[in-house]
Amino acid sequence: MEAKAYLRYVRISPRKVQIVCDLIRGKDAKTAMAILMQTPKAASEPLVKLLKSACANAENNFNMDPEKLVVTQVFATPGPILKRMMPRAQGRAYRINKRTSHVTLAVAEKE
């Protein structure tokens, strides 16, 4: 049984989130939390909250032992792109894509 938590519409590019996701995939919850706390990336702060949420879901909804939790799945997919314009010379405008992400994190008890 897995307990999942979702983080939707976070205003950071999926490429940047995926780097941090790769660091914690397969680790136990305490180790993953320690890694996220020490990682100087913008994506680590929202992922800390997401990991806490997934652990709370596991403990409260599925009666899992919080000491035995392991991060089984974590991935980021692209969300909607906010399209903005940047004024340039001679009346031109360049498009700026402000990307968003949807992040999914699942934890399960290790045997």
Automatic annotation (TrEMBL):
Keywords: Plasmid, Ribonucleoprotein, Ribosomal protein, RNA-binding, rRNA-binding. InterPro entries: Ribosomal_uL22 (IPR001063), Ribosomal_uL22_bac/chlpt-type (IPR005727), Ribosomal_uL22_bac/org-type (IPR047867), Ribosomal_uL22_CS (IPR018260), Ribosomal_uL22_sf (IPR036394). GO terms for cellular component: cytosolic large ribosomal subunit. One of its GO terms (biological process) is translation. It comes from the Bacteria. Gene3D superfamilies: Ribosomal protein L22/L17 (3.90.470.10). One of its GO terms (molecular function) is structural constituent of ribosome. Transmembrane segments: none annotated. This protein binds specifically to 23S rRNA; its binding is stimulated by other ribosomal proteins, e.g., L4, L17, and L20. It is important during the early stages of 50S assembly. It makes multiple contacts with different domains of the 23S rRNA in the assembled 50S subunit and ribosome. The globular domain of the protein is located near the polypeptide exit tunnel on the outside of the subunit, while an extended beta-hairpin is found that lines the wall of the exit tunnel in the center of the 70S ribosome. Belongs to the universal ribosomal protein uL22 family. Part of the 50S ribosomal subunit. This is Large ribosomal subunit protein uL22. It comes from Vescimonas fastidiosa.
